């Protein structure tokens, strides 16, 4: 499959001490091919449960292309947790920490009782997913499913243990000695 094929050859760069892999789905670099995007979307739709879901939720920036194509396929609207504060009434700020960055994410557009599916490109340390889940819980949303395209390291297990939610992924990778391996 294209996702696995393209992962095999992706470059790794250092972000501080973190070995960061660069891939079209996770970075939009070097180029996002429609056949790859389509394959990923179809695979997400196969594993995910989008029945009777009010909103798809993703995080800026690299969940946006995924939420967009899933929204077009399912006719479900989507919400982007932004890194920018809008100061809208009921905006929910949460702290986000990844393996290489720290910041805030802001949730708008979710009503109490909304049934949501969370979609993101990668789960690595799980810091971002913890932030998304905590914002949605504060908003009173009902999380129906969580799907990340790529899992790396043990962040998925950590988040599952802490929150009780099951996280689905399409492929599991790791970076070992500067090389990306696919399990
Ligand atoms: O599991 P974690 O360690 O939290 O890593 C996963 C997150 O890291 C990336 O986001 P980032 O905040 O770097 O922003 P980007 O989407 O703009 O690359 C990626 O898009 C995930 O949201
Ligand atoms: O290694 C990575 N590559 C791309 N996106 C990511 N988000 C967390 N880790 C990574």
UniProtKB/TrEMBL annotation:
Gene3D superfamilies: 3.40.50.2020. It is an enzyme of class 2 (transferase). Its EC number is 2.4.2.8. Keywords: Cytoplasm, Glycosyltransferase, Purine salvage, Transferase. It comes from the Archaea. Pfam families: Pribosyltran (PF00156). GO terms for molecular function: guanine phosphoribosyltransferase activity; hypoxanthine phosphoribosyltransferase activity. Belongs to the purine/pyrimidine phosphoribosyltransferase family. Archaeal HPRT subfamily. Homodimer. This is Hypoxanthine/guanine phosphoribosyltransferase.
